[in-house]
Structure formats: C-alpha cells, structure tokens
Amino acid sequence: MRIGDLDLGEQPLFLAPMEDITDPSFRYLCKKFGADVMYTEFISSDGLIRDGAKSIKKLDISDYERPMGIQLYGHIVESMVEATHRAVKAEPEIIDINYGCPVRKIANRGAGAGMLANIPLMMEMTRAIVEASPIPVTVKTRLGWDENQKVIVEVAEQLQDLGIAALTIHGRTRAQMYKGTADWTLIGEVKNNPRMKIPVIGNGDITTPLEAREAFDRYGVDGIMIGRAAVGKPWLFQHVKHYLNTGELLPAPTVSEKVDMARLQFAKSLEVKSEPVGIYEMRRHLSNYFKGLPHFKEMRLKLLTSLDEKEIFSLLEEVREKYGDHTPEDPGSFWDK
Questions:
Q1: pLDDT (tens digit per residue) in 87-124
Q2: Domain assignments of the chain as residue spans, ordered by start
Q3: Is 324 helix (H, G, I), strand (E, B) or coil?
Q4: Residues recognised as catalytic
Q5: Which fold has domain 2-246?
Q6: Does the N-terminal peptide bond of residue 120 adopt cis geometry, omega within 30 degrees of 0?
C-alpha cells in the first residue's frame, strides 16, 4: 500500500487519532508494538491559526514515530488552508482531514462529521487543502450523517477526484456516534468500486487479530485503523501483525507484562507533560490496562485518584505482586471473544 511516495508495505496497521488519548506517550507504546502509521490528536484549525498553546504542542513529532500524520478539523475553508500551511512546517508525512468526529460540539458547528451534512462544503474544503499542501492529503470520514443518508460510496469517488491520497472510513454514521456495530459492508463496497484507485483503510470494531484478518480477507481493504481497542492494549498491533503473518495467536500478556507497559507509558507521560497533566491523562489508560482482573475495584480506585507519581508507581508494583503472571483468559478464549 502506498500513500503518495510512502511505501507502507502490505496490510499496514494505523493508530486512529483520538483526542486526549493518542498523545506522544501512548504513541510511543503503539509504535514499539508495531503500528505502521500514527496520527496526532486532532487539531482545531481555529486554535492553530490563533497560536493556541495546546494546538501548537500537538504538532510535536519525534523521528521514531514516522511516518506521522497531522489531523486537522474545522468548518471554515480559509482557516483550514492556513492551518494546513502551519502543519506542513512541522514536517509530517501526511495531512489528514477529519470529517468523522461525531461529538456534538464539533459536528453541530459543521466540522468533523458535521461535514457529512454539507457535502458541497466538504468538497470545496478538500479541494482547497489538496491544492495548498505539498504533501499527501488523506481523509477520515463516516458512512454518512444517519441511516437515511449513507452517502460514502458517492462521496469517496468525489474525494478521490479532488486528489486525496487515501481514504479512511469508520463504519458508522454520525448519528450512531460509537454505538451499535460498525457496518463494514459499505467500506467493502467503496474498496471494490472499480472507479476507486486510492487506498481504502477500514476502521471500526477491530478488537482482535481474527477480526483484522476477516476485514482484510472479506472486504479487501488496503489497511486497517485501530482506535479504542488499543487503549490499554498497545500490544494489540504486535498480536495482529503476528497473526496476519503466521496464522498463530500469541498468548495474552500477563499482568506483570502489562505492568511493565503501564510503567513505561506513565514515565513517558510524565516526561512529556509533567505533573499533574501527565497523571490525569494517564488515568484512562491505567483503567484499561487491568480491565477484567478479579477483586480489583479498590486498587483501581487508588490508581485513578492518586496525584502522586511515586505512589502510582508503587501501586503498579503492588498489582504485579498480587497478580504476577496471571492471565485472565487463555489465548483461545481471549481472542475469540
């Protein structure tokens, strides 16, 4: 699979951009475990062109993360073009346009998935960004606004004709938010449309190596994007790749191995963001690392309320001592669910 001049090999795995989740500390773990392409947290075009500190900080890219994409969102064409110029200066490999975020405060302003309610503006904006960017422009979007307006097949052709280099499709409508089940049939229809020549990346409900294999085999997508399933499970990329290459399921990591991962990510979070932000933004990851452990409620509460880094590291060691090499499920049941 290629995006512009980028050769990503066969069946590449993408880490989905997620606000307050895909920060440098989480990306560090996902890259370590084999994510082929990653993106920044999405960046507001308005925030970027107004020199908002949070938006500018998100432009930071380390060489080990490459190839990297910077994802932008907004509802004003001129602002998105100016933001593109600024983002390009950070030297990413890809500029990605977010036409998929369903969150009300974004979509109701006409940004993110809100663009699915105004296709002419989506096309005007895409054309302007492609013309403004010296590097490949990609798009991430959804099936449509709601059940009665699943327009992705036609929209995909139009976006391709405007010069985007790849298209990622989340298999839900904006109305669905993250509820229900992702519908991959329309993703497959886009991919198998004889008019489509650019790579199509599928996204939605890929939580196991088996589901990844089915997505490639059944729907023919060029790549897969993994999002929420990787939170607290950055090793998922390694397990998916191993299964795609060998047909063998790796055993689920032990609690002790998960503690090692959590400690590494927490240390990176503190390095990048310091206290207390590095602690606050690590909490959702800690919650997911140890999901499913028996009799864990009290320990979980301590991990998610402490504001002392030494105490959190100590609590992680307590988790290791208590659960050690415990693996909640055997490899078969773990991946079959």
A1: 999 999 999 999 999 899 999 899 999 999 999 999 99
A2: 2-246, 255-323
A3: coil
A4: 101
A5: TIM Barrel (3.20.20)
A6: no
